[in-house]
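[job 0412] stage=fold_complex status=start
inputs:
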Amino acid sequence: MKVGVIGGTGYTGRELIRILRRHPRIQNISVYGRNPGKCMTEEFPELRGLYDGVVLPLDPEKIVKDVAVLFMALPHQVAMEMSKPFQGKVLLIDLSADYRLKNAREYEKWYGIPHKDKEALVQYVYGMPELFRKEIKNARCIASPGCYPTSIVLAVAPLLEKKLLKGNSIIADSKSGHSGAGKKLSEMLHAGSVSENLQAYKVSTHQHTGEVEQTLTHMNAGKKVYLTFTPQVLPFDRGILSCVYVDLVKPLSQGDVTDLYANHYKKEPFIRLYNNKAAGANPVLPTPKLVAHTNFCDIAPIVDTRLNRVTILSCIDNLVKGAGGQAVQAMNIALGFNESEGLNV
Amino acid sequence: MKVGVIGGTGYTGRELIRILRRHPRIQNISVYGRNPGKCMTEEFPELRGLYDGVVLPLDPEKIVKDVAVLFMALPHQVAMEMSKPFQGKVLLIDLSADYRLKNAREYEKWYGIPHKDKEALVQYVYGMPELFRKEIKNARCIASPGCYPTSIVLAVAPLLEKKLLKGNSIIADSKSGHSGAGKKLSEMLHAGSVSENLQAYKVSTHQHTGEVEQTLTHMNAGKKVYLTFTPQVLPFDRGILSCVYVDLVKPLSQGDVTDLYANHYKKEPFIRLYNNKAAGANPVLPTPKLVAHTNFCDIAPIVDTRLNRVTILSCIDNLVKGAGGQAVQAMNIALGFNESEGLNV
Amino acid sequence: MKVGVIGGTGYTGRELIRILRRHPRIQNISVYGRNPGKCMTEEFPELRGLYDGVVLPLDPEKIVKDVAVLFMALPHQVAMEMSKPFQGKVLLIDLSADYRLKNAREYEKWYGIPHKDKEALVQYVYGMPELFRKEIKNARCIASPGCYPTSIVLAVAPLLEKKLLKGNSIIADSKSGHSGAGKKLSEMLHAGSVSENLQAYKVSTHQHTGEVEQTLTHMNAGKKVYLTFTPQVLPFDRGILSCVYVDLVKPLSQGDVTDLYANHYKKEPFIRLYNNKAAGANPVLPTPKLVAHTNFCDIAPIVDTRLNRVTILSCIDNLVKGAGGQAVQAMNIALGFNESEGLNV
Amino acid sequence: MKVGVIGGTGYTGRELIRILRRHPRIQNISVYGRNPGKCMTEEFPELRGLYDGVVLPLDPEKIVKDVAVLFMALPHQVAMEMSKPFQGKVLLIDLSADYRLKNAREYEKWYGIPHKDKEALVQYVYGMPELFRKEIKNARCIASPGCYPTSIVLAVAPLLEKKLLKGNSIIADSKSGHSGAGKKLSEMLHAGSVSENLQAYKVSTHQHTGEVEQTLTHMNAGKKVYLTFTPQVLPFDRGILSCVYVDLVKPLSQGDVTDLYANHYKKEPFIRLYNNKAAGANPVLPTPKLVAHTNFCDIAPIVDTRLNRVTILSCIDNLVKGAGGQAVQAMNIALGFNESEGLNV
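[job 0412] stage=fold_complex status=done
writing structure:
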């Protein structure tokens, strides 16, 4: 099978190429972009010997003939300006934020710019297999979820599905490896800011808030669920630890909650739960390092029975389950492949 | 002035010695311990040329004659077994957890062992200057606060004092440099666990919970305030970032809250507030690096007006304001010195 | 094909399992050890969902019937006590240091203990494909090279082969991620020693010195080549940067040396050279991050024409090309597979 | 005493201000620059409460009247354009590279630009107290040494002084915390390049080479000593470990060399030697962490008796002994203060 990637100059594109290379069904990967002729290894010397291809011209007519699947690994705003010619012509998987929000006004609110491809929003399925597997199966356009939202939504889904959430909001305190903030030079990403430090940013205003709220509200039968969100930059490359705080409508024991999660996720190939029932003084808990370079989401719900509150620890690799890995998982579903194919490494 | 330190083999003791060396009123520092004759630089080669003294014998009668101030930098449990002979005889400042909780049953609950010096608890003043300056002034026994509690309590004090807390609980998501977990070898502190990682531990069960709840309840006129607490180990040496989540009893604007904090802390020498009223897209926010090696507590309250919830970022150096620095600040107060003496570096 | 691993509780074993899982020719991996019944995921929770097998009993008779290839991922000293029953019965690939030195006296000198399986030493081929590909092809016992030696030997091989080394010694200043020092608890591997630090250790006495000297002397037609070696522990998990200093017998330009390396390594699948002829002010140079999680050895020779000295930068992932990856590369050769099979990821 | 600092927007200036604040003889610190009125805390929020002063106008006539000592903490090239009006009028201490090389042609060679204040070069004393204490005593213009050169020169001085160097060159493999590369945004200083990595740069071409060679040649009675130099960027903030390799003209034991260093540096307040005579399997060796935030240079010479080669480990904090600390040490000498005043913390 032949697949294409538009935009290979960011971390998302690079990681996607690595993941696609390992996929046994994929024989050919083409990268398309605005700088045709440029070698991918100029941008990413680590790809030498792995992907030495040059960037091909951005010719939509040719692309739709050449590839069966097209991944858009572009910054938001750019993606919605370039997607039109591909919609419906290939299996289109967008890793930007542009097609995640169903409501164009919400998009404008969180991203500060008007949406330029509103009418297409309805065609896109939100590519989170654990929630929308059925819809992904029939999708031709997929909006692959954001990294923070993946870690947060998967953390609370079992409780929300059982209508156990008290009140109308949750809190997510999320710490991400600095690759989540990208490659562009900035004060915040200068080594002097990142090393030996933990930087909170966009507190209660981060654009992923809208994405999480849309998904949680959908799961809550349309009753609005709010998110208080504190993203923070960790002094290493990859991995997210989200601590999500949820109040329960009724008292539940640790055993109840552990069972509820086990039951909810029992068939999921990429969710790993931590059994705290048997936990000693130092139970194994999810950490970013345990999921690094994998497509797993590791989850541990911990009940504070004094307060009927649950602290849910949730870890993913932001570049795999939080980006390229989840996109390939969705591709596998949409094409009828084994869902884990090429990802179980 | 002559001061003594019992227990110099931990990070707390080492940092305390460094701080005391810079204090202009202190001419002589003696370290006492169970291994008299041992040179401090064997344990801490970094002290060579700074503190080359040997450990002196633990002879209480001699000690109380020799020093005006005695710091106990011992593990909990050990401190309460050794404090008796010094109480009332010198200005005694205990950096362990043994004399922080006023209620011996609470101590047993959180530390898992019975308290061995219950009757002395009443003599100890909780050494947090911002809350108990008056009491410290007249104290002869001071229980210096824990690192996490310092960062959490100072974050919410202005709101609690104005009775703005809704409900009976707060949430603190606290990330600490690994020095907070000490020098002892353990799986959790092996480089393989710490590097490129963020480890949550003792979620909702950490022993500092009781200390925070005691202080917040005291500020709340005795009405119980609960804490949901998630401590986490960062992959660097020093510094804490606590993100504290509080619901408000009534709507307040960012300006209201900024003013409230500014007013509450206007005379405090070691609280630095961040003015988010004027904040642009990337306001400067507290980080562990900005307070490293200082006695400051940096605080920024950020209002989520949609939910009447405040996220308060609070940073300290766990070894300075969270340990030796705060202890010396209390000493300055108790002895009538300028509160910042020797600390303003 | 079925393969076995003895000793899966160290980083080497864990990484080897990960690599073997990706190998398309391998259908079954058995781990054998002294704690049969123990689940590998107890030791390495990161393997959950990837390798959930339990440790099987160490029954040599059964093992040699069950597997075609057996990897020994044991500490030195232990390996030589357990290898006998497997020699000649399977393709035996030893990742410890026990069979690398051909001379038992050298072994005793560098490892401080007498060798316990001297007569078997002659059967083992040193498993560095770039130097001993032909010998590996016919080998039944392979001693897989150490991590530091791999980075150092590959750095100087082209110069040595052309007899360009002046004098009888080279210098290697090698910096390794802390995983190279293993999982055992120790002061040196405590986070407090590792974080924000660079620790030299065993300066001019490290046991890998003998291994490097044996190989370089062999390449130098038996004329002794000495090594001055400074190993250092970096504050992150994986990767080695060796800076190797060599004096030349005659003046060579940067172009000469670049061409010499290009020619020497032109057919090697896992050597990546950096062309400094075209280098601008900031040429891309090898770094540990560029090779992390790959089997590549990245090399850049840089000529100081004022002194006829070459500084060779050489990077590998100590757990891949420096351990499990190189072992699998040797296996591929010995079994007649494509040398890159399962490794080109 | 009043002192001035020109250029406070780099790490060197910030650290200098911190050091000067602790100096008991200094009552007043003025910062001068091109952006008068700007608050220093805008650039460095960590200085809030420590140095809240605003930048004063760059008016040379006023400055020379106001201050007794003036530190120039400017980038090279800028310093030599602005120094003229201050030379001879105040105690002028330049922390840039502009006045370190005595020979303007050497300057042009290493810095790629012609020198603009050649005639003043002769007035400047190279401010390394361990080598030029006498000259500093009478100096009015001091060129404070570079960070790498400090760590390298102090490592080899005892051997060179005794004429023990064989050949005409040494090798220095130097690893520096990333603060050594400054605050400016660049690919090399992006967190993605720095974290979990070690980056060699300017191999054998770094501009500090000339500075080291000038000093070593001076110590070698004018006989040229060359340096092969490999600078590398570490993934943390501060500290240098230089491993310096020197061949001896005659065999010396470890004891000989240890004694030689002990004797050479016996009166130095800021040199700490490590006694390897008594070293066990894991002797304490210099590391960047042991000297962080201090003015010490920690040195351990280790003899490889097989080769008559000495590996010298040498550590400094690049921002203290490698910049502001050494500058203040020179000031103390020039002004007749106790050499350690304000630095012994």
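[job 0412] summary: Residues 126 and 143 of chain A are 5 Å apart (CA to CA).
[job 0412] exit 0
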